[in-house]
Specification:
This protein is α/β, with parallel strands linked by helices. The protein has a domain of 157 residues: Rossmann fold. The chain is built from eleven helices and eight strands. Strand 3, helix 3 and strand 4 form a beta-alpha-beta unit. Helix 1 crosses helix 6 and helix 7 crosses helix 11. The longest helix has 15 residues. The radius of gyration is 19 Å and the shape is globular. The model has no long low-confidence stretch (mean pLDDT 95). The structure holds NADP nicotinamide-adenine-dinucleotide phosphate (NAP). The site of NADP nicotinamide-adenine-dinucleotide phosphate has 25 residues, from strand 4. NADP nicotinamide-adenine-dinucleotide phosphate binds next to strand 4.
Amino acid sequence: MKENILVIGGTGKTGRRVVEGLTQLGHNVRIGSRSAAPSFEWNDPNTYAAALKGMDRAYIVYYPDLAVPGARKAVQTLVEAALKEGLEKVVLLSGKGEKEAEACEDIVANSGLNYTLVRASWFNQNFSESFLLDPILAGFVALPMPEAKIPFVDADDIADVVTKVLVDDTFNGQTITVTGPRKMTFKEVVAEIAKETQQKIAFQAISIEAYGQAMKTAGLPDDYVWLFTYLFKEVLGNPDNQEVSYDVERVLGRKATDFSAFAKKTAATGIWNQTVSSI
Ligand SMILES: NC(=O)c1ccc[n+]([C@@H]2O[C@H](COP(=O)([O-])OP(=O)(O)OC[C@H]3O[C@@H](n4cnc5c(N)ncnc54)[C@H](OP(=O)(O)O)[C@@H]3O)[C@@H](O)[C@H]2O)c1
């Protein structure tokens, strides 16, 4: 059956891919973002109803992260508005091992709507479409938590899982944990990208404090610095939080994408061969 589906963050890393997947399946998709029409702005609850009106289902991507102050209130207000507008089901993108994200998951689970929670590990695409692209382009990546082994997940896999569970009610009430098939350190990741691009990329381990200070020196706002230092400590600081999950295979019937395959495919696009825009 053709559904009307709101994809919040529909121009972002996962949302863009979910829009593609749902459109290919023949569903009617509306993007929820500041640049969409009607415009959806997380910081303005007055924009929620118009974005939700006429929709059957929604993919909820909070920006910038469910850990930031204000996220709980916004998610609560959004699910109340979704219930009022008669939506049947929502899928929340959550973060693996974030206490604040779990509080938002509880809000969705107790909303009275049908729901599926998709809990993601760190994305591969942080190195190609996000804050770790510029250091890669500069040939020098300095990051804290060098000992953390992270089961990086591919945004294509997240999107395939989200696309499926949005329209398949057998996953209602479930929490799907999406990770890649193996755990890697930042140093190993950088080495894989260097191999695929045939470029020299140095990795240097630094303390969280030095990382925060470097962000401040680069002129990044305090709340951004807080969020990133928090995510490094909270999400990567707990080794128990870094286990590999096989939910991608359970939901999709195929294996999760390995980082090497991501690195090969992404290197072929040329994105890692551009001139650095800013560091
Ligand atoms: N990156 C990771 O490793 C990781 C891991 C686990 C979980 N997550 C979660 O993933 C989520 C981010 O998902 P993503 O990476 O797919 O998105 P993203 O690439 O960060 O894209 C952001 C999207 O949100 C929209 N947006 C930005 N500010 C907005 C605002 N104030 N109001 C409404 N829309 C806004 C943007 O469009 P406009 O500019 O047009 O508004 C865009 O569509 C976060 O909640 C994060 O916690 C990330």
